[in-house]
Each structure stands twice: as structure tokens, then as C-alpha cells.
UniProtKB/TrEMBL annotation:
Pfam families, per the entry: MRM3-like_sub_bind, SpoU_methylase
Highest rank taxon of the organism: Bacteria
Any GO BP: methylation
Presence of the UniProt keyword Transferase in the record: yes
Source organism (scientific name): uncultured Nocardioidaceae bacterium
Swiss-Prot/TrEMBL keywords: Methyltransferase, Transferase
One GO molecular-function entry: RNA methyltransferase activity
Chain ranges of the tRNA/rRNA methyltransferase SpoU type domain: 120-262
MRM3-like substrate binding domain: residues covered: 22-91
Protein name: Putative rRNA methylase
InterPro entries, per the entry: Alpha/beta_knot_MTases, MRM3-like_sub_bind, Ribosomal_eL30-like_sf, rRNA_Methyltransferase, SpoU_MeTrfase, tRNA_m1G_MTases_N
Lineage: Bacteria, Bacillati, Actinomycetota, Actinomycetes, Propionibacteriales
Length: 267
């Protein structure tokens, strides 16, 4: 069972995993170096542990202990109990969900392993906003996508904000990161997927027509500003668009991923 340890000093070195959570650059360095990630909120913490991620520690306000009592009973990691004001001092924001956990990352599977048995995959190219990555994972998981593939420069799905927005979908949906961006689309084609580039280009066809009757589909979505790179658009088998009302030229990539996943799931 997790040992409950009450702390009253924001500078306590045992709280290092939780310090300055709003500092994205610092957190990237720390989490990569230490091989950890943070989960926030009762549901997300529970889902992370149930998915097999080993806790390093927990950080909780006293009133949130009962909600995760069963998780704490099964864990050997320490649980640091602090006031909500102290948690805010340490993390840099109000932890309104009351519970945080630091967990050990698992080794990532390779791209061939992730797509081997998949029929539908979502491929994210250089999406750097953690909220958008988390939203794409949540939509993919909800709409029966088998796996997610990330370009090398995509934001980290296990960053706290991504995990929170995805509501833990990143723990259960298989994902891998490409090592070779330049020929990334070709790797998917070689694995038997029809690659469908989501774009607003004038030669793009309605996405429902583009995916109708296809067996294995890799749906390619690009970064928040410019969209898919020209290289990936040229490499794709099909260029597809979500039809929109006159005067509206695009959707946020998170919204576009939800609509596209729904259409692909119905093919």
C-alpha cells in the first residue's frame, strides 16, 4: 500500500516531479531525462495505472484520497499529501482536480509493430499544440481508430495537458513515433495502407468519396497553421477535404480529426 506522507514545504526535494508544470521547456527536459510523465485527476490517474504504467509517486489533497483509495492500496509508491495551496505553489497552477501522479514511461513500440494489425490509423504531422494532440487521440479512440502515428516533431502525447485532454486515451490507443519524416508516408504505403491526406487544396475530393470502399486507411493530418507539408501531400495516395459552408476555409485540426475519423469509421 502507498505510504501517506504529509508535506508542508514547497521546496521539499521529494516534490521535484511536480514542480513548475506550466514551464513546458523545463518539463520536456525533466520528463525525457527522468523517463516520467504526469497524470492529473482521479479518472486519468486511475486509467494510467490500470493501463500498466508504474507510479513513481502521488500528490494529493487530503479530500481526494478516498476517490483513489483502491489505487493507493495496490501501489508501493509514496503518496505525498499536501494542502491545495501548497500544491499550487509547487505546480504553478490550481490543481482543481485534486490529484496528480508521476508515472514511469513504457518503451514505445516501433512503427511496424503498431500498424501490423491495424486497419485504420491516424497520422499527425508536426502538430505542436498538446491540446490538439490530446483531442486527436480522444477522437481516434472514440471512433474505433486502431493506432496513432506521430511525425518526429509532433508534441508529446504523454505531456500532462495532452493526457488530460485525451482523458487517458493515450494510455490505451497504440501509438508510435516515426524516425524518418521524409519517407514517412512511403512507410505506411509499404505496410498496405491507402494514405489519405486531409487538405483544403482545390484538387481534393470529398472525404466520404475518398475513403469509400477502402480497406486499410492512414489518415494524414497536418500542423495547426500551414497544414500538411507539400512533401506529404504529394506522397499521399488521395487528397481529401471535409466539405464546408461557403466562406469557411478550414477547421481546427482537433475538430477536423474528429470529423474525419467519423467518416473513415463509417466507410
Amino acid at each position: 500500500m502507498a505510504e501517506l506522507i504529509e508535506l508542508d514545504d514547497a521546496g521539499d526535494p521529494r516534490l521535484a516531479d511536480y514542480r513548475d508544470l506550466r514551464d513546458v521547456q523545463l518539463r520536456r527536459h525533466l520528463e525525457a531525462e527522468q523517463g516520467l510523465f504526469l497524470a492529473e485527476g482521479e479518472k486519468v490517474v486511475r486509467r494510467a495505472v490500470e493501463a500498466g504504467y508504474e507510479p513513481r509517486s502521488f500528490l494529493m489533497a487530503l479530500r481526494w484520497l478516498p476517490g483513489l483509495e483502491d489505487v493507493l492500496e495496490r501501489s508501493a509508491a509514496p503518496c505525498y499529501v499536501v494542502t491545495e495551496s501548497l500544491a499550487e505553489q509547487v505546480t504553478g497552477f490550481h490543481v482543481h482536480r485534486g490529484a496528480l501522479a508521476s508515472l514511469k514511461r513504457l518503451p514505445l513500440p516501433s512503427l511496424p509493430e503498431v500498424v501490423a494489425d491495424a486497419r485504420t490509423v491516424v497520422v499527425l504531422e508536426d502538430i505542436v499544440d498538446h491540446t490538439n494532440v490530446g483531442a486527436a487521440f480522444r477522437s481516434a479512440a472514440a471512433l474505433d481508430v486502431d493506432a496513432v502515428v506521430l511525425s518526429p516533431r509532433c508534441a508529446d502525447p504523454l505531456y500532462r495537458r495532452s493526457v488530460k485532454v485525451a482523458m487517458g486515451a493515450v494510455f490505451h490507443l497504440p501509438w508510435a513515433r516515426m524516425h524518418d519524416w521524409y519517407d514517412g508516408v512511403g512507410q505506411l504505403s509499404a505496410a498496405g495502407f491507402t494514405t489519405v491526406a486531409l487538405t483544403t487544396g482545390p484538387d481534393a475530393v470529398d472525404i466520404e468519396k475518398a475513403v469509400a470502399g477502402l480497406d486499410k486507411v492512414a489518415l494524414l493530418l497536418g500542423s495547426e497553421g500551414p497544414g500538411l507539408s507539400e512533401r506529404w501531400q504529394r506522397s499521399a495516395d488521395v487528397r481529401a477535404v471535409i466539405p464546408m459552408a461557403a466562406g469557411i476555409d478550414s477547421l481546427n485540426v482537433a475538430a477536423a480529426s474528429a470529423v474525419a475519423c467519423y467518416v473513415v469509421a463509417r466507410r
